[in-house]
């Protein structure tokens, strides 16, 4: 390879398929241990290797000069650009090169390497040939369509953003501004992902629907936040209908609402609860919530101008290319254009926090340890070489030379898009016939009307998995579709134990949701970071369907339904008890809202220092609040590390109410991710759950307390199966 570089007189980009999680780790170890005249510099983020740069140090002409490093190669992952198995990619893009071939990897060993050398080399040569063919064909497609060279890109998301900026972005008509640190931190608290919930655990009549390109469909036709954001420290007397932006608000969701709309993020999990809470939301989401019966009191926020979507032409063009690929039957091109449409918005809200890796020598390690407070671990790889794993934040990196907004980020755009997507889905989620939902899909017990169906039109639904008529839905990311007519099933089960579950396991879980099974699973690609090795590892995993997102409802000892958790008034009061400024705001709201005042006064958890008979005078409160509101936004410190444990709302250190029930653990920060995960490792004590679970069981009942029992008798068998 070095000879090729010398001949080409330039640094080369070399691709491996699945380099980020496999080949890159092994290659870096090999180079560090066997080519110590070279230097490895990995570009890693959250343990995914996006690039590995290899440098050499030629001897300077002057012996007194310090050697300067010279870049030889960039190793990258083709699977991050063109996703899919290499075999299928080759069949679609370069079938003339022949098939991928294969070997039994389980039989490959050091002992038989020499005996099978010829067949192994033939397999590897064919692998290299078809990967080269795939990349050349893909390079030609994207260059001819968009004048973008994939060799210059690391990921499909980066390429998507580059195509948009170079070919479709109008900087005059649709200018997108970078946010300062305060605005970025505040708005990321209102950046939520898709809605995933399991409502009804079992049905023998199911209709599974997916939305055609949910996020691209809402990117195309909705107003986006434009212009520079303006901070408003007091929105309590303003009309929500006149606002456009991201607002922290006091929320009350009706207790009788079966399928709540607004999310509440706790420990990086999206909960959908009723009752009292405070959160940051996109204004259009709050307006829609009001039409559903929510009570909304705006408190403060960043407001924007309304801007026509800058993505209209981009989405239309890529969508047309995808439809053409579908007509040609080219699945790889279909997937590529689909990823281009869906990757754009997420890249704009890339998370500021991540982990990174760096290779250090003996001469560098002491200085690195003294100058870095965010080190996670340091592993010795070989004599004189170490791999350091540490936390990094793009804001901190920018602030080293004065704050500069990270390039090509616009979380306000991404947050608005995901909010519009949840609005689009809610009419279907709220149907009584909805059994299950996950981001862009719903499972119903009746068919949707024809006017909302289309195989290709963006934003409309298409039916999937028509061969199945029954379904068990235990929790988000835990369900199975099946039919009595054939043995095939379609299942999803999160976690390492996925391969150990089947239809019988789902039936057992439905009959007794508290069951769990410890299984041994093989992980053939376990990464040992201390040694930079990939090994086969047997590990124990627990197969279970535990979910704390909703309360189970039992009828005649059968689990038949679920209902949301309720956050009552005492939770609101307890959450503001440690926050004096928030206490002042609540006191003002008490004065202005007699019904709220009456409800809060009736709570047996009202602390003495919060009662309206306190000596705190409203004039003093208003004066104190007013004095805080005139402070400049640049003097604020919006701390985004404790979303639901805020400091002063008016001092803008963390404007939020910690509206947590006894059962809800205090959340960690989440400033960039909008994944929706269901916790299976955290459990609530029975006493805590009883505080809001409306239990109706006998003292001898040993079932968990996060359930509701209706008409519990023994006239029917207590099992579904």
TrEMBL record:
Coiled coil feature spans: none
Pfam families for this protein: DNA_pol_B_2
Family matches, as InterPro entries: DNA-dir_DNA_pol_B, DNA-dir_DNA_pol_B_CS, DNA-dir_DNA_pol_B_mt/vir, DNA/RNA_pol_sf, DNA_pol_palm_dom_sf, RNaseH-like_sf, RNaseH_sf
Protein's UniProt keywords contain Transferase: yes
Compositional bias of kind Polar residues: 633-661
A GO BP annotation: DNA replication
DNA-directed DNA polymerase family B mitochondria/virus domain segment(s): 7-115, 120-430
GO MF annotations in UniProt: DNA binding; DNA-directed DNA polymerase activity; nucleotide binding
Region feature (Disordered): 618-721
Sequence ranges of Basic and acidic residues compositional bias: 663-698
Domain of life: Eukaryota
Compositional bias (Acidic residues): 711-721
Catalytic activity: DNA(n) + a 2'-deoxyribonucleoside 5'-triphosphate = DNA(n+1) + diphosphate
Entry's EC annotation: 2.7.7.7
The keyword DNA-binding appears for this protein: yes
Keywords: DNA replication, DNA-binding, DNA-directed DNA polymerase, Mitochondrion, Nucleotidyltransferase, Transferase
Similarity annotation: Belongs to the DNA polymerase type-B family.
Name of protein: DNA-directed DNA polymerase
Source organism per UniProt: Stipa capillata
Gene designation per UniProt: orf-f4
